[in-house]
Amino acid sequence: MSRAINRLSASAVKSASVGKYADGGGLWLVKREDGGAQWVLRITTHGRRREMGLGAYPDRTLKEAREVADHWRAVARQGLDPIKERERQRREAARNVHILVDVAQDAFESRKAELKGDGKAGRWFSPLEIHILPKLGKVPVAEIDQKDIRDTLAPIWHDKADTARKAINRLGIVMRHAAALGLEVDLQATEKAKALLGKQRHTVRNVPAMNWRDVPAFYQSLDSGSLTELALRLLILTAVRSYPLRFMHLNQIDGDVWTIPAAAMKGRLGATSDFRVPLSAEAQNVIAEARKFARDGYLFPGAKRGVISDMTMTAFMNRRGLSERPHGFRSSFRDWTAEATNTPHDVAETCLGHTTGSGVERAYRRTDFLEQRKVVMDRWASLCLRDARNLAILNAQ
Q1: Does 271 map to a domain?
Q2: Domain that holds residue 329
Q3: Which residues form the signal peptide (predicted)?
Q4: Residues 335 and 222 reside in one and the same domain
């Protein structure tokens, strides 16, 4: 290249005093009084003279400054304004740096309609928020690999296996969401991370459940008329999960049928029909007692606002010295139907709100077994009210 272009040398740049020094082709070194220095490219585009900063010296060497200057001169020869083009590229690069926390939030927002209560309880997002985002939230999603995921979840992979499983599964959904947005991500990263983490040692334990033979005595001990005890009684009588019961609204009750919105039923997300729960005479009595506590239409309101916490009934059973949990009464009910009744499998499972059979079978089977379930729930209520001494007689029926 001509000396008219490359006028400066590395040693001259290093020893230069305060002032401006031309390297040729519009490239200048500007030495300041404070000891700092920077590269500037003077260029004319669209009839206007422009000065473009190319970085500080010595962070950018003379050789690097010349290479950058060559690039932007070529841009100018294409009829583009180098400064505006650089700004455009920076904006585009910023848009392309999608960090995990932003993609995760977007994935969550797109799935809210599928979640109970629009995900307000936080159970879908919390595994990510607590165990993934603190370490990987600021990382561009395209840069996340199996080693990052392994290192993030290794501390809880065995000790909190269920939580870790939920976290990695949610992360997999987020990665697929990122791919749908057109980002280049490794869709196998979570599966590779599982291979690196190894098989979980944690043994899944079922929710402690009360033996169905002990349910009558416990049910009859709930006799104070408190809101918590009424909620427990209705939970036992209907064999539903705590979420729909806690959010039970008066406008969902029509005589001896309680209709739970489909969105509130776990395992029935996206269902086009709600779930009907037959109410025994005893269940209707409990509802009548609970009405005096109703606020804003909710049968079991919280002390200050909203509805009772999902820990309210658990805490009550803890105070009673019981290891069993409220959710376990669903198992108590199911064991009773299997051991002490001739309830058909599909009817018993439908009592719990479970779907049975293949998709094709369900497409052709339109019944929800409401009448059959009324009979079963009436017998269950009778069991709950029966004196324990007469339990053997009931079992023989």
Answers
A1: yes
A2: 212-396
A3: none
A4: yes
| The pLDDT of residue 130 is above 70 | yes
The CATH code of the domain that includes 16 is 3.30.160.390
Instruction: Using alpha carbons, list the distances in angstroms from residue 9 to 12, 24, 233.
Output: 5, 12, 89
pLDDT confidence band for 213 (50 / 70 / 90): very high
> Encoding tokens for residue 360?
């094709």
How many residues are recorded in the chain? 397
- For 48, list phi and psi in degrees, rounded to 5: -115, 140
Contacts of 264 (CB under 8 A, 6+ apart): 116, 117, 243, 244, 247
Separation CA 298–CA 259 (nearest Å):
14
4 occurs within a structural domain: no
Top-confidence residue, 251 or 6: 251
Q: How many CB atoms lie within 10 A of CB 250?
A: 13
pLDDT for 203: 59
Of 140, 130, 62, 59, nearest in space to 95 by CA: 140
Residue 263 in this model has a pLDDT that exceeds 80: no
161, 135 contact by CB (below 8 A): no
pLDDT at 9 over 80: yes
pLDDT confidence of residue 191: 95
Instruction: Locate 163 and state its tokens.
Output: 């939580």
Judged on CB neighbours under 10 Å (0-12, 13-18, 19+), 151 is: middle
User: What CATH number should be reported for the domain holding residue 326?
Assistant: 1.10.443.10
The arithmetic mean of pLDDT across residues 57-76, rounded, is 91
C-alpha triplet 319, 325, 330: angle, nearest 5°: 145
Say what the pLDDT of residue 120 is: 57
Residue at a domain's end among 68, 96, 124:
96
Q: Tell me which residue of 366, 354, 269 sits closest to 346, measured CA to CA.
A: 354
Report whether 311 contacts 297 (CB < 8 A): no
- Together in a domain, 230 and 379: yes
The share of the chain scoring above pLDDT 90, in percent, equals: 57
Note whether 16 and 122 are same-domain residues: no
